[in-house]
Write a structure and sequence with these properties.
It is built from five helices and four strands. The chain is α+β, with helices and mostly antiparallel strands.
Length: 132
């Protein structure tokens, strides 16, 4: 898994700390190039949790409007579960297991990441409305 945006990633499934036997390590730049080839639209999300001094780098595919509709439907009932599902649908398969483990440990991270992904679909805080 990714250790950080400038670090390394295992090319196979495993743990974040690289303790998988026979795992081939590649640089973050090399892996980003591979991901760009595999996924037509890919986005990198860097998350820094200041209070616990942890940093994470995740890669996501662009969310689909269908997944956005599901989030809207479930957001008012179970907002955290809706955001977890939304982000899990968009994270690249190479990081899915690690991302899932990470948001189990830090559940609010799914909300923060989900907000960024919703921005790719047009959600913005920079919209103004004025009565004329």
């Amino acid at each position: 898994m990714f250790e950080d945006g400038k670090g390394t990633m295992e090319k196979n499934e495993g743990t974040q700390d690289g303790k998988v036997a026979g795992a081939q390590m590649v640089t973050g730049e090399e892996m980003e190039q591979e991901l760009k080839t595999k996924y037509p639209k890919i986005y990198r999300v860097d998350a820094e949790l200041d209070d616990i001094e942890k940093e994470f780098t995740f890669y996501f595919k662009k969310p689909t409007p269908a997944s956005f509709n599901i989030v809207l439907k479930n957001l008012s009932k179970k907002s955290l579960a809706a955001m977890k599902q939304f982000t899990l649908e968009s994270v690249v398969s190479e990081q899915k297991q690690w991302y899932e483990e990470t948001i189990e440990e830090y559940p609010a991270l799914a909300m923060s990441v989900g907000q960024k992904l919703l921005g790719l679909l047009g959600l913005s805080d920079n919209i103004t409305l004025k009565k004329l």
